[in-house]
Amino acid sequence: MTDQITAVRTRPRHAGPRGRRGSVLWLDRQETGVRRDLRRLAVLLALLPLLLLLSIRLPGIVQDPLILSYGVGVLGSTIFIFYRAYAHYDDLSDPVRSRVPNDADAPALAHVPTVTLIVAAMNEIDVIDDCVASMTGSDYPELQVVVVDDASDDGTSVRLRELADRHDFTLVTMPERVGKKRALVAGLRHATGEVIAFTDSDCILAPDAVRRCVAALVAHPGLGAVSGHARALNADATLLTRVQDTWYEGSFRVSKAAESTFGSVTCVSGPLAVFRRDAIWNYLPAWAGDRFLGAEFRFATDRQLTGYVLGQAWVGQKLKDRHRESPFLAIDHPARRWRVGYVRSARVWTVVPARARPFLRQQIRWKKSFIRNLCFTGTFIWRRGLGPSVLYYGHAVWVLAAPAMAVRHLVWGPSQGLWLLTVLYLGGVLIKGAAWGVAYAVDNPGDPRWRYRPLMSLISSVLLSWLLPYALLTVRRGVWSRSA
Fold first, then answer.
1. Which residue ranges make up each domain of the chain?
2. Are 336 and 313 in contact (CB under 8 A)?
């Protein structure tokens, strides 16, 4: 057994043409400062077309400030996200290149800390075998696996008992259904790890995924949590799954990478979410019983727990005081200014909806989570600095304004005979999608799926933007279902 976690530099999944591979090796041989400056220059040159488009649009704000400010803001934030993700991000599992300040003044973890990897399942008979096998098949040496069955009634309970005879994990069975967060917290009562890792019941982890995330936490004591990198497990099932796969790639590789450069990833996503125990343990009761608008809120599972890590320096004491009698507060961990990062090399694959109806239900759940998180994380994220504020509030403005923009360009414009307005709007959406498609092609050379990414931008603007008002009106209605 090793006495230290090995952090390995990784290459992209597709090595690409010989020339590209040679240029990467040449860049690797340069001194750190030279390599950093060359990379930033290359990114700026690649962003020149978008910068040129931005310079063309800026003067128009004087004539139509309300509408053009939205388009300019979206374009400007896209450029900013791309620049941070490609010019500043380094994989946090590589301590040679990555640097994370210890603003939290946190003690270092052991070289090989104990880890508890936990999942909650409810009616997942079709996928639970592969999920459990990937969890117990992790190459991390000091791993405790906990599986919680939330009163399944489709045969999952029987199957988990059978799997427990063949795999090394702790099975926790809930006598009645309590929901995902409460089920996980019940399972965590059995956790022994210094690090707590979560996955979803429809996911498959790469054997080294947990090890890479833990390597990041060990190398950087200032990190309270990290997210892995998720892709679609069933990407080839339908056109819709292929589109979602390209969206997942960009959401992690670009959006989370950009947030990670500021240490402020706002959603450590469920497929692979890894936390230091002392960063979340005191806040688990608040997480399990989270309430919003007078009712228990069962969504925002990932975002809310991440919010407790990001904001505990400002809201942590209040949350602790509400649950002072809980056994999770038997040891009082000091509130710290943790950073939250993203580990690109920690791979996980998740089942995504293959049909329109489950896809729309999933999107409604996510928009409800967005609303809840905006009312929590949005109250303090500005304290973490200008960069995190631009990324968080810029995204919030885009989501909140999207329904109004859709009405103006897709309903009001055509009704007034202003078809050019509609064409320009759709053209802008496709240009933005094409930029994300190019990013996909750069990161996945030889993979033709980049062409699906503009379609996802079109779906988001034309279809999904309308879901926000519905999600707001039904925000108190919540049922835990992961069926895709």
1. 10-45, 115-353
2. yes
**312 residue type, one letter:** Q
CB 320 within 8 A of CB 331: no
Report the pLDDT value the prediction gives residue 16, as an integer from 0 to 100: 42
d(CA 33, CA 297): 47
- Which pair of structure tokens corresponds to residue 208? 């080294």
Residue 416 confidence (pLDDT) above 50: yes
SS (H, E, C) the chain: CCCCCCCCCCCCCCCCCHHHHHHHHHHHCCCHHHHHHHHHHHHHHHCHHHHHHHHHHHHHHHCCHHHHHHHHHHHHHHHHHHHHHHHCCCCCCCCCCCCCCCCCCCCCCCCCCCEEEEEEECCCCCCHHHHHHHHHCCCCCCEEEEEEECCCCCCHHHHHHHHHCCCCCEEEECCCCCCHHHHHHHHHCCCCCCEEEECCCCEEECCCHHHHHHHHHHHCCCEEEEEEEEEECCCCCCHHHHHHHHHHHHHHHHHHHHHHCCCECCCCCCCCEEEEHHHHHHHHHHHHCCEECCEECCCCHHHHHHHHHHHHHHHHHHHHHHCCCCHHHCCCCCCCCCEEEEEEEEEEEECCCCCHHHHHHHHHHHHHHHHHHHCCHHHCHHHHCHHHHHHHHHHHHHHHHHHHHHHHHHHHHHHCCCHHHHHHHHHHHHHHHHHHHHHHHHHCCCCHHHHHHHHHHHHHHHCHHHHHHHHHHCCCCCCCCCCC
Q: pLDDT band at 362, cuts 50/70/90?
A: very high
Using a 10 angstrom Cβ sphere, with 0-12 exposed, 13-18 middle and 19 or more buried, the burial of residue 42 is: middle
pLDDT digits (tens, 9 = 90+) for 106-158: 999 999 999 999 999 999 999 999 999 999 999 999 999 999 999 999 999 99
**Residues 119 and 240 sit within 8 Å (Cβ to Cβ):** no
CATH of 115-353, one of 3.90.550.10, 3.60.20.10, 3.40.50.261, 3.60.15.10: 3.90.550.10
Cα separation, 133 vs 166, in Å, equals 10
Tokens for 226, please give them: 């990290």
Whole-number Å distance between alpha carbons of 118 and 184: 7
Report phi then psi at 42, rounded to 5. Answer: -65, -40
105: left (phi over 0), alpha (psi -120 to 50) or beta: left
Cβ atoms within 10 A of the Cβ of 138, count?
A: 19
Q: Which of 307, 289, 456 is nearest to 380 (CA)?
A: 307
Contact residues for 104 (Cβ-Cβ < 8 A; gap 6+): 221, 222, 224, 336, 337, 338, 339
